[in-house]
């Protein structure tokens, strides 16, 4: 049924594309629509589609806005092939990206073809350094790690073992933990990497147990992080489990073995009184029957950001190209997005406070909010 | 639409080079390698690193890539060529798995899963070539050169030696041919030319990582050769075109869900391989009956265990 | 105690490898057919069990369904794919490519039907019990090793004590002899496929409950089976069993020294060494001939 939703979204996108007039605008999206990370594609596109719906209903742009989806499978190389299609064939000026490895991989193409790429899902800190045409509407993992490390130290969890996926995301979390644990009086007792395709972790669990940690930090995503949690618990690891915003997807939260796990996400003020936030929260809740997650917010914001910029360009009578979108963003002080008015850092990144959550009965419950910078 | 076709044309040209070079050892020398993607990868990494640190000129990157792949193929072909039949398939599979691990783990050189980012475009006489409209003629020209080189080789006395080995290794040896040397040279040539495809690929996409050089790619290239026709001149190109056009054509069938197109394509080429082997083992271009039947170990029920052969090979 | 824990984990993994490899080795040893789709049989059996589990069927029915599916795939392959190719004396490679093709197709069809994500069969049996300080073993590990022993002994009995079994053992050496005794080599080939395919079932079900399934799993299983068959010595069932355990142990114990990314490379480095230095394998017949 989750797949059905994507198909429906794609079908709508195709319909729009089919009936496109000269003024219609198209943006691209490189999401995992199949493979072990397809859950993320579902979550991301629900935010994108709601934003498109609102923008078209409000007639914010002179024509209709539509989204061209390409399946990245969360794999860098697959994504680059998809990105080539989006910039060379569909010539979309604005592409939504996700995942650290994918985002890094497509950044050269974005820069080369003057296409804006916006990330709302990947959290590797390197994503802040990918050039003018690469923007982030999500706080990066260095902030998440810096928020959770003092929390762990305060709660007597000093000896940490890291289990991380051997890719750019996992490596960046490792670097952040190595840098920030000693400052908080903690210790990285062991770091254990797993290949991206691995799914048998009984041996890993033995190594974790042998290190005797107070807490185990898990830096993976998708189906793999679920297997890691399940098999650690299956194989006698009793320590507190900790993760990052990648854990905030429905099937990970619902895992019985994940009960009590701590994870960080960006803090979004859903009670903000501004009309953008109010409308987003009420429409999303009515549609999905649950509260939105940070990912939904980010991709809603990414699309809304495009509409605001394109609206500005259209008013001035300028073409909606990547280069113009970039200069328009630099010329604009702040944007009214979900969660309130925000402004960009010079490196194209949004700052947001971080919130620490615990999984209680299959859902995330906020413990405290930390401002990091 | 034009951009779409040009983009596809680039990919077909690059994979055609791979298919032709694999066909060179499969079809003419009877060496069935499941590790062709390794040399594609070595070429891509070497070409990309040369472009990033030396010069992006195609006259620098391509020779560097060819040299690296040639040297590596030598080091790896020599032991592997001592065995044959299922042992060689197993050895080449093993090589493929080892190479993938090294591509993924030698992070200081290959960037690991994160790959190499920011590879400069191919530089041809001072012009940066990367848009499909200019890259397509370039890739087509390189493909033409590879076709000419392999055809000249196949028709030379070297090519006749290869065919003799394929048809009967022991007969060729008894005629005084240096079988291991001829086989090794053919592997080196094939690997070096496959590296050219790798360099083009890296320059076109600006990014490479281990995912492009895994077993799947080796299998895809092998399928291109087999479906087109092993040991034929045009079969591999036809095979490459068919397998790369298939997803595009499938996406026109609007009743197919877009997320399943990849899987449907794979299913079709899997079944296509099986059906061809049953009814037309020579491939689409090839003659009805397989030409390679004489070379590899016969599969007829009750053959002697090939371990014996392998042992004899090793002892020689 | 880490090494003891890893050795026990290795035994569990090894038991799955061993049974699957014995199946492949039996087929390859007696028919000389390089049945690359053996990995696909593993995946199909595992997913059929998963489907039965999802549908709420009792476990024995699920096991039966998985076995039926595995045998059906193996025998169909033998009848519809290998038999016609052998009729026109196809080469070793023709058979290999056809088998590879079917393997890819099955993997993708399974992916389309069941999704390409990981799925797991949840059972209390996968939860480990402390047996020593710092050493945990799940009931499934004992079941895996017991299955390997039971199936192996059963298979040995069958091959040595029954007519069909003895004929199967003779098949690879002299099909003429088989014909002279009035037996049909094609029919024996079908028996080999049925037996070899059914051997994947325990491993497939144990994998579904321990580390979960995805359709691409077949590749890995096949590579390991192939490696175990060669390391054990082509045609030696006992060799495949021993090599399966050896590879499982090596993969697990390698974790003491290496990061887990290197485990597959360790397996294939072992394979490489055997191909170069001892192509006859651990118990290969070539060594004595």
What does this molecule look like?
The complex is a heterotrimer of chains A (373), B (316) and C (289). With 373 residues, chain A is of the alpha/beta class. In chain A, 45% of the residues lie in helices and 20% in strands. Chain B has a single domain (2-315), classed as ABC transporter involved in vitamin B12 uptake, BtuC (Orthogonal Bundle), CATH 1.10.3470. Chain B starts with a helix and ends with a helix. Chain C has 12 helices and 2 strands. The radius of gyration of chain C is 19 Å and the shape is globular. Chain C has a two-stranded antiparallel ribbon with strand order 1-2. At the B-C interface, helix 4, helix 10, helix 12 and helix 13 of B face helix 3, helix 4, helix 7, helix 10 and helix 12 of C.
Biggest sheet character of chain A: 7 strands, mixed
CATH overall fold name of chain B: ABC transporter involved in vitamin B12 uptake, BtuC
Number-wise, the strands of chain B total: 4
Spatially, the strands of the biggest sheet of chain B line up as 1-4
Low-confidence parts of chain A lasting 5 or more residues at pLDDT below 50?
Answer: 1-5, 7-22
SS-derived structural category of chain B: mainly alpha
Helix share, percent of chain A = 40-55%
CATH topology of the largest domain in chain A: the name is Rossmann fold
Radius of gyration of chain A, in Å, reads 20 Å
- Radius of gyration of chain B over alpha carbons? 20 Å
Mean pLDDT of chain B: 81
Overall residue-averaged pLDDT value of chain A: 86
- Total discrete domains of chain B: 1
Could you say what the CATH architecture of chain B is?
Orthogonal Bundle
Protein topology:
The complex is a heterotrimer of chains A (373), B (316) and C (289).
Chain A lengths: L1 H17 L6 E7 L6 H21 L6 E7 L4 H15 L3 E4 L2 H13 L3 E4 L14 E3 L4 H14 L4 E7 L2 H13 L6 E8 L7 H10 L3 E5 L2 H13 L5 E4 L6 H4 L8 E5 L8 H14 L5 H23 L5 H10 L3 E3 L2 E3 L11 E7 L2 E8 L3
Parallel strand pairs in A: 1-2, 1-3, 3-4, 4-5, 6-7, 6-8, 8-9, 9-10
Antiparallel strand pairs in A: 10-13, 11-12, 13-14
Helix pairs in contact in A: 1-2, 2-11, 3-4, 5-6, 7-8, 11-12
Chain B lengths: L1 H28 L6 H18 L4 H23 L5 H20 L1 H4 L5 E2 L4 E3 L2 E3 L2 H24 L1 H11 L1 H6 L4 H27 L1 E2 L6 H14 L6 H16 L10 H19 L26 H10 L1
Antiparallel strand pairs in B: 1-4, 2-3
Helix pairs in contact in B: 1-6, 1-9, 1-10, 1-11, 2-3, 2-4, 2-9, 3-9, 6-7, 6-9, 7-9, 10-11, 11-12
Chain C lengths: L1 H30 L6 H17 L4 H29 L4 H23 L14 E4 L2 E3 L1 H23 L1 H9 L3 H6 L4 H14 L1 H11 L6 H16 L4 H21 L5 H15 L12
Antiparallel strand pairs in C: 1-2
């Amino acid at each position: 049924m989750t797949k059905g939703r994507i198909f429906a979204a794609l079908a709508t996108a195709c319909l729009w594309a089919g009936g496109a007039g000269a003024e219609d605008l198209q943006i691209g999206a490189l999401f995992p629509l199949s493979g072990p990370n397809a859950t993320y594609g579902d979550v991301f596109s629900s935010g994108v589609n709601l934003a498109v719906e609102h923008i078209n209903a409000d007639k914010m742009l002179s024509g209709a806005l539509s989204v061209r989806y390409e399946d990245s499978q969360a794999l860098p190389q697959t994504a680059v092939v998809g990105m080539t299609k989006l910039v060379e064939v569909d010539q979309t000026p604005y592409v939504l990206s996700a995942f650290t490895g994918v985002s890094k991989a497509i950044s050269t193409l974005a820069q080369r073809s003057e296409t804006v790429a916006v990330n709302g899902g990947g959290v590797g800190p390197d994503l802040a350094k990918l050039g003018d045409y690469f923007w982030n509407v999500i706080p990066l993992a260095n902030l998440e790690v810096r928020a959770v490390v003092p929390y762990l130290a305060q709660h007597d969890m000093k000896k940490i073992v890291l289990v991380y996926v051997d890719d750019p995301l996992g490596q960046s979390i490792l670097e952040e933990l190595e840098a920030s644990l000693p400052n908080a009086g903690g210790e990285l007792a062991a770091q254990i990497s797993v290949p991206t395709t691995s799914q048998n972790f009984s041996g890993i669990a033995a190594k974790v147990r042998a290190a005797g940690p107070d807490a185990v930090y898990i830096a993976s995503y998708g189906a793999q992080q679920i297997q890691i949690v399940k098999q650690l618990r299956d194989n006698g690891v009793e320590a507190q489990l900790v993760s990052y915003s990648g854990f905030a997807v429905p099937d990970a939260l619902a895992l019985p073995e994940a009960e009590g796990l701590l994870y960080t996400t960006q803090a979004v003020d859903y009670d903000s009184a501004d009309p953008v936030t109010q409308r987003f929260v009420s429409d999303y809740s009515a549609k999905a029957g649950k509260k939105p997650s940070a990912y939904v917010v980010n991709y809603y914001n990414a699309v809304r950001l495009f509409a605001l910029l394109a609206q500005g360009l259209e008013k001035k009578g300028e073409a909606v190209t990547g280069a113009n979108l970039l200069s328009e963003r630099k010329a604009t002080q702040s944007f009214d997005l979900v969660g309130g008015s925000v402004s960009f850092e010079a490196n194209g990144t949004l700052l947001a406070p971080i919130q620490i959550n615990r999984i209680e009965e299959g859902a995330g419950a906020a413990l405290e909010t930390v401002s990091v910078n | 639409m034009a951009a779409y076709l040009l983009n596809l044309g680039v990919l077909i040209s690059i994979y055609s080079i791979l298919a032709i070079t694999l066909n060179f050892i499969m079809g003419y020398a009877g060496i069935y390698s499941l590790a062709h993607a390794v040399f594609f990868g070595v070429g891509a990494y070497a070409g990309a690193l040369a472009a990033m640190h030396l010069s992006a000129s195609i006259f620098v990157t391509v020779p560097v890539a060819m040299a690296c792949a040639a040297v590596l193929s030598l080091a790896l072909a020599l032991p592997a060529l001592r065995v044959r039949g299922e042992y060689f398939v197993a050895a080449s599979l093993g090589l493929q798995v080892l190479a993938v691990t090294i591509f993924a783990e030698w992070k200081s050189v290959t960037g690991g899963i994160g790959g190499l980012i920011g590879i400069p475009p191919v530089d041809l006489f001072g012009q940066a070539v990367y848009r499909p409209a200019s890259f397509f003629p370039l890739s087509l020209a390189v493909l033409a050169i590879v076709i000419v080189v392999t055809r000249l080789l196949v028709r030379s006395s070297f090519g006749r030696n290869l065919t003799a080995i394929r048809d009967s290794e022991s007969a060729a040896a008894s005629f005084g041919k240096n079988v291991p040397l001829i086989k090794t040279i053919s592997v080196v040539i094939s690997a070096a030319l496959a590296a050219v495809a790798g360099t083009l690929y890296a320059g076109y996409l600006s990014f490479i990582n281990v995912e492009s050089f895994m077993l799947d790619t080796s299998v895809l290239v092998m399928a291109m050769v087999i479906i087109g026709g092993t040991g034929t001149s045009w079969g591999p190109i036809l095979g490459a075109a068919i397998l790369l056009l298939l997803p595009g054509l499938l996406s026109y069938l609007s009743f197919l869900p877009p997320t399943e197109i990849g899987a449907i394509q794979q299913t079709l080429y899997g079944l296509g391989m099986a059906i061809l082997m049953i009814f037309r083992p020579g491939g689409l271009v090839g003659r009805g009956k397989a030409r390679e039947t004489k070379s590899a170990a016969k599969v007829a029920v009750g053959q002697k265990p090939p371990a014996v052969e392998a042992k004899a090979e090793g002892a020689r | 105690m880490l090494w003891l824990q890893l050795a026990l984990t290795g035994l569990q993994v090894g038991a799955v490898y061993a049974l699957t490899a014995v199946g492949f080795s039996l087929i390859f040893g007696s028919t000389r057919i390089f049945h690359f789709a053996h990995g696909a049989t593993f995946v199909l059996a595992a997913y059929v069990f998963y489907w039965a589990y999802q549908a709420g069927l009792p476990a024995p029915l699920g096991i039966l369904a998985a076995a039926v599916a595995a045998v059906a795939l193996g025998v169909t392959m033998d009848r519809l794919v290998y038999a016609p190719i052998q009729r026109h004396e196809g080469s070793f490679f023709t058979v290999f490519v056809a088998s590879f093709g079917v393997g890819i197709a099955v993997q993708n069809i399974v992916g389309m039907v069941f999704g390409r994500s990981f799925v797991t069969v949840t059972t209390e049996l996968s939860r480990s019990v402390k047996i020593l300080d710092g050493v945990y073993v799940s009931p499934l590990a004992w079941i895996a090793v017991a299955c390997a022993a039971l199936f192996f002994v059963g298979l040995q009995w069958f091959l040595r004590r029954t007519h069909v079994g003895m004929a199967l053992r003779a098949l690879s050496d002299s099909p003429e002899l088989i014909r002279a005794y009035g037996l049909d080599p094609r029919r024996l080939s079908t028996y080999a496929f049925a037996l070899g395919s059914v051997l994947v079932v325990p491993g497939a079900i144990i994998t579904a409950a321990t580390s979960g399934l995805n359709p691409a799993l077949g590749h890995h299983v096949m590579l390991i089976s192939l490696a175990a068959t060669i390391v054990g010595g082509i045609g030696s069932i006992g060799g495949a069993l021993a090599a399966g355990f050896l590879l499982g142990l090596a993969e697990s114990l390698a974790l003491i020294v290496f990061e887990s990314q290197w485990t597959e490379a360790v397996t294939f480095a072992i394979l490489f060494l055997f191909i170069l230095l001892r192509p006859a394998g651990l118990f290969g017949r070539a060594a004595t001939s």
